[in-house]
Design a protein that fits this description.
With about 220 residues, this protein is of the alpha+beta class. It has a domain of about 150 residues. It contains four helices and eight strands.
Length: about 220
């Protein structure tokens, strides 16, 4: 009995030595061993955001880029508007020439509305409605106007202009609405377009070159 008790005690100590504490491991139903003492890793959450210095730096950078880009954009816009104004003046010259040949018996229309009246048998006027609805019109950042002095001996036109109203010449000018553009244009019955740093209104004659400005080649 003594010997048996001694062997049983040794076996018990041996089992206790290799026994996995219940508080440490657990055998799951599927045979997997899980660690009960292992705590899930917790990530520390860090609330990150822009500081006042960061925001001031971004605002200053945007302001710098804007100050560098705006002059170039203004210059490009001015160039595009000036190009459009030149095209419009060429259209006016073409419409006046067509009027003089087909309807005015060699004389020109004294104003823009006259060019908006089509000749008999046609639905097409000499200029579009947007250019002939008034004595002046605005297009692509420019203000356009046209005037001609009627000649007493001028015949009536085919589109209803009374005798003595047609003009032997005309003057048309284009003034920018934005003075920063600083490109003013004018033309007349000669068909030459002039540019100047100030308005050519009152300076552009109905024929011949003006006293200011330079012709555009």
């Amino acid at each position: 009995m003594a010997g048996g008790s001694g062997a049983a005690g040794d076996n018990l100590k041996h089992a206790e030595k290799w026994q996995v504490p219940k508080s440490v491991h657990r055998i799951a139903a599927d045979g997997q061993v899980t660690n009960m003492d292992t705590k899930p890793l917790q990530r520390k959450r860090r609330d990150a955001g822009f500081t006042l210095i960061d925001m001031l730096f971004v605002v200053a950078l945007i302001g710098l880029l804007a100050s560098m880009a705006i002059p170039g954009l203004m210059k490009a816009r001015g160039a595009a508007q000036a190009s459009s104004a030149l095209g419009t003046l060429r259209t006016v010259n073409s419409g006046q020439l067509s009027f003089a040949i087909t309807c005015g018996l060699g004389f020109y229309a004294p104003d823009l509305p006259t060019l908006g009246i089509p000749p008999p048998g046609s639905t097409e006027a000499f200029l579009s409605d947007e250019m002939t609805s008034a004595f002046t019109f605005v297009k692509s950042g420019y203000d356009f106007s046209l005037a001609g002095t009627g000649l007493a001996g001028a015949p009536a036109s085919c589109n209803g202009l009374a005798a003595g109203m047609a003009s032997p010449g005309y003057a048309a000018v284009a003034d920018p609405l934005d003075p920063v553009v600083a490109r003013f244009f004018g033309t007349n019955s000669d068909g030459v377009i002039y540019q100047h740093s100030a308005t050519l209104s009152g300076v552009m004659p109905e024929a011949g070159g003006p006293g200011a400005g330079a012709p555009i080649q």
